[in-house]
Amino acid sequence: MDSIELLLDEGSEQFITGEWEALQAAGLPSRASHRSPHNRPHITLVAAPAITGDRDEQTGAGLNLPLAFTCGGLLLFNAGRKGYVLARQVVCTADLLMLHRRVHEAGAVAGAASTSLPGSWIPHITLANAVPREQLAAALDVVGAPMPGGSIVGARRWDSQARTITGLAGLTNMTCG
Q1: What sign has the CA pseudo-torsion 106, 110, 115, 117?
Q2: CB distance 45 to 116 below 8 Å
Q3: How are beta strands 71-78 and 124-131 bridged, if at all?
Q4: Which GO terms of the molecular function aspect are on file (predicted)?
Q5: pTM score over 0.85
Q6: Which of 50, 112, 134, 150 has the CB geometry, 3.0–4.6 Å to 12, for a possible disulfide?
Q7: Which residues lie below 8 Å from residue 38, measured CB to CB, with a gap of 6+?
Q8: C-alpha dihedral sign at 34, 40, 41, 42
Q9: Distance between CA atoms of 107 and 45, rounded to whole angstroms?
Q10: Helix/strand/coil for 27
Q11: 2-172 belongs to which homologous superfamily?
């Protein structure tokens, strides 16, 4: 799955990676176990089977960064037999919603995930995938502290087939093996 993602300031990224590490240390599922160089805390704007680079310049130009953000509570997404996705909810401000809409106006993305479309977008920062039901209470205990507010400082496009990251704002391009 390809994506366009927002990147967090250093303090926010450290807070989230600290939560990843705490979950892992507790023997629970965590994004810390995902060892790819592209794995870092982010807010997904669009996810789809393929997102081509023909919209990169227009997408990057529509981003007005840095942008303050805050997190609300914790979210659970049902992942079927795998359990649940545990995430921090990102509060939808008018500026964040406008940024999201601008990215979508830069060009339609075929097959975009419903949770990334305007009107039904659920902005979040994933902490763990595939948390079994019987481990939910323990995982919630580990990540229960509120997250301080932060800033969105960059954006990137992840191409899952080519395994490349294209910087759209505040980031350089890279290949991930």
Answers
A1: positive
A2: yes
A3: unpaired
A4: ligase activity
A5: yes
A6: 150
A7: 158, 163, 165, 174, 176
A8: negative
A9: 13
A10: coil
A11: Cyclic phosphodiesterase (3.90.1140.10)
